[in-house]
Write a structure and sequence with these properties.
mainly alpha; single chain; 2 domains
Length: about 190
């Protein structure tokens, strides 16, 4: 949902990051080019916030009890619903690396009613939609999720969508620009 080509909060050059952040900026904070991803360079403007958020975000992205596929479908749907070009684009690339096809990524924009989804995938997307709309997973969707997911996984569904709602709000509000080579929203609208 970037409305201009100028960020509201400019990315902070690495040489201006605090020492602890500079030491932590390993591969997961960097693009393939070696440069810090714009999200992290922007959040480096508030080092205390970034350090604390990274603990939670690391759980959601890499220590989550959900499968990579389930996690990425939830993140993509959240990014699309929140009109977050940055989030959508980054996770479209991650989704491809997790084995989600381009056709499935496109179907995320249609939502849970796209005819190509399995009932499990449709239920995950429905959960993301319900959390987005009502801040709650409805009883029917919860019951369906509970037939295939553990208590930890059910909790991770909610926290995955919730984390990426926060991320989308930050990205959209701060005007974080997409990194080079990262696609925007599929329908070209922000």
């Amino acid at each position: 949902m970037t409305t201009s080509n100028v960020p509201r909060i400019p990315p902070l050059p690495v040489d201006q990051w605090d020492d602890e952040l500079r030491d932590r900026q390993g591969a997961y904070l960097r693009a393939d080019s070696g440069e810090p991803l714009n999200i992290f360079a922007t959040l480096a403007n508030h080092p205390k916030l970034m350090k604390r958020w990274l603990v939670f975000a690391t759980h959601v992205l890499s220590k989550n009890s959900l499968s990579e596929r389930d996690r990425e479908l939830l993140i993509l749907r959240t990014g699309y619903l929140c009109r977050s070009e940055y989030e959508w684009g980054q996770h479209a690339l991650i989704a491809l690396r997790c084995g989600i096809s381009e056709a499935e990524i496109t179907a995320v924009t249609v939502g849970p009613d796209a005819p190509s989804w399995s009932s499990q995938d449709a239920t995950l997307l429905r959960a993301a939609d319900e959390l987005h709309r009502a801040s709650r997973i409805g009883d029917g969707t919860w019951a369906e999720l509970a037939t295939r997911h553990t208590t930890e996984q059910l909790m991770d569904v909610v926290f995955t969508v919730g984390n990426y709602h926060v991320v989308a709000m930050a990205l959209n509000s701060f005007g974080v620009q997409r990194d080079e080579g990262v696609p925007g929203l599929p329908d070209g609208q922000s």
